[in-house]
Amino acid sequence: MTKVFNSPLPLPSRRDVLKYAGLAGAATMVGGGASPVQAKYKHARAAVGRKHALLPVAESTTVDAPEVDLSHLPRVKQELVAPPFAPVHEQVATGGPKIVEVRLEIEEKLMVVDEDTGAEVWALTYGGSVPGPLIVCHEGDYVEVTLVNPASSALEHNVDFHSSTGALGGGGLTHVYPGEQVVLRWKATKPGTFVYHCAPGGEMIPYHICHGMNGAVMVLPRDGLKDAEGNPLRYDDIVYIGEQDYYLPIDEDGNYKTYEFAGEDYTDSLDAMRGLIPSHVVFNGAVGALTGEGALKSKVGDTVLMVHTQANRDSRPHLIGGHADYLWEGGSFSDPPMTGFETWFIRGGAAGAALYTFKQPGVYAYVTHNLIEAVLLGATAHFVVEGQWDNDLMAQISEPGPISI
Ligand SMILES: [Cu+2]
């Protein structure tokens, strides 16, 4: 079968995917658990010569496996929503495990990163947003993902779910070329918050991730979140904050370069990424996406679960004027939450969750506490909190005025 692409970029063929899959399996065995599986991944159409690349896993590894009959399980469709919102979900599961059906439709789209400078990017997205939508399920559920790559796309995509087990997180089983879809089912065996991201192979992996192609999954314990003593922890609201580092190419005059179609910036982007200095670090895709009209709303007394994801780079979230009352820093809900943090840590390639009950009204800046990144590169969100001020917690005893001795 001949496949026609409208991309100018070199793409590994499906034949290459299968060819190198056997090598990946061999490397896994020989390496005795050496991680990750890596090898020279050569293909004639490589844009930047020969590079080390993560190898896709063979579809063939699943061929002889016994079928699993899940026909007895109820199915529910989860309607995904764009960040900073979360899909409708139960904090405590009712009933037994379910099959949660979600549809991730890939969209390659031109997005403004910073209105002030005109910086823009041909974002590679799941569902049209950066990050992709939050998926929520409970431990023991099965998530059945339909990944759709429309014919209008320029590029091949796939998805690696850190919440799943096997086949590079599903990345080896979900390569879809433009005009294809694939359905992957994985079991939510570990409760917590996890990244998912595109990982099509080679340099395309950081290229896609740094063009917005990542999101998060939250796997709740069936009986909900708990503190270290086993007492239930509940939230009144949940916000999903996706941190994105961009490496936007600049021309000789210092202006952000513009491109006509997704993928056209490939070589320039790789050059910019090699410097490891992001041009932007933003929440939810763009500078100011979560300030002003996009500010997050809450009120005194409300408990908010803040899910923070960063697919590529370390981050240090801090709520200015508040704290993390409870913190699942590594994202695992299997472990008791830590408490009372001023600033927490999100590892690149991970999502974490912090729970806070607002105690004062006002505007809270939620930043990464590298304040250069927060202020100069864009990583600032605002919570606007309504309610009654508590003078016991804080009071201005005298207004600013002349110094008196
Ligand atoms: Cu992709």
Structure explained in plain terms:
It is built from four helices and 23 strands. The chain has 405 residues and is mainly beta. Among the domains are: 1-55, no CATH class; 232-386, Cupredoxins -  blue copper proteins (Immunoglobulin-like, Sandwich), CATH 2.60.40. A six-stranded mixed β-sheet has the order 15-14-17-21-19-20. Strand 4 (99-114) and strand 5 (119-126) form a beta hairpin. The chain is flat, with a radius of gyration of 22 Å. Mean pLDDT is 88; it is low at 1-53. Bound molecules: copper (II) ion. Copper (II) ion (CU) binds at residues 124, 157, 198, 200, 208, 213.
Blueprint (SSEs and pairs):
Layout: H1 14-31, E1 38-41, E2 51-54, E3 75-77, E4 99-114, E5 119-126, E6 135-138, E7 142-149, E8 160-161, E9 180-187, E10 192-197, H2 204-209, E11 214-220, E12 225-226, E13 232-233, E14 237-246, H3 266-274, E15 280-283, E16 296-299, E17 303-310, E18 317-319, E19 324-328, E20 338-341, E21 350-357, E22 362-368, H4 371-377, E23 380-386
Parallel strand pairs: 3-4, 4-7, 6-11, 14-17, 16-23
Antiparallel strand pairs: 1-2, 4-5, 7-9, 8-10, 10-11, 12-13, 14-15, 17-21, 18-22, 19-20, 19-21, 22-23
The structure holds copper (II) ion.
